[in-house]
Design a protein that fits this description.
Elements lengths: L2 H52 L6 H14 L2 H5 L7 H19 L3 H22 L2
Helix pairs in contact: 1-2, 1-5, 2-4, 4-5
This protein binds heme C (HEC).
The site of heme C (HEC) has 20 residues, from helix 1, helix 3, helix 4 and helix 5.
Length: 134
């Protein structure tokens, strides 16, 4: 191998290494911000449910979608916050309460049931935040 070839190989190796560490850093960053991202999604959908209750659109398409997105993302809370760690029993219990509250919202038949179920849902968010959100 000539000296030039050796230098070219060295440069390719360095560039590939740098690229891979950037990729690894991006994966780690995405994992680190996932819990907050999930919570932001929940916040937006809770807002949509509150608006639906306020504007008496309790069984409208937006309310249905919001509760569906809440339902799906709420199933990932424990995994999001405790990826490689044991989930504290108390945290799991609060997540279960949230999921039960979401089911209640989804089961509401009219505004008379929907509005109070959305209020209970918001209370289940606060219940976990009181213990786990600094
Ligand atoms: C089982 C526990 C739990 C439940 C239930 C829960 N959260 Fe959270 N939430 C947390 C924790 C823990 C944090 C703090 C995250 C951090 O800063 O690392 C948080 C933070 C947040 C944040 C701030 C996110 C950020 O960008 O820092 C928002 C917004 C939020 N939650 C909304 C909600 C909403 C809306 C609900 C209910 C629909 C909800 N949460 C239910 C545990 C929970």
């Amino acid at each position: 191998m000539s000296g030039k070839q050796a230098i070219a190989l060295l440069l390719i190796g360095l560039a590939a290494g740098a690229l891979m560490s950037v990729m690894a850093a991006n994966v780690l960053r995405a994992q680190a911000s996932y819990p907050q991202a999930l919570m932001q999604v929940q916040q937006v959908q809770l807002g949509a449910l509150r608006n639906a209750a306020k504007s008496q659109q309790c069984s409208g398409a937006r309310a249905g979608e919001a509760s569906l997105i809440l339902d799906a993302t709420a199933r990932d809370i424990e995994r999001a916050f405790y990826t490689n760690a044991t989930v504290p029993a108390d945290f799991r219990e609060r997540a279960e309460h949230l999921r039960a509250a979401i089911s209640e919202v989804r089961a509401a038949r009219d505004c008379a049931q929907f509005a109070p179920s959305v209020a209970r849902l918001a209370a289940s968010c606060d219940a976990c935040h009181q213990s786990y959100r600094q």
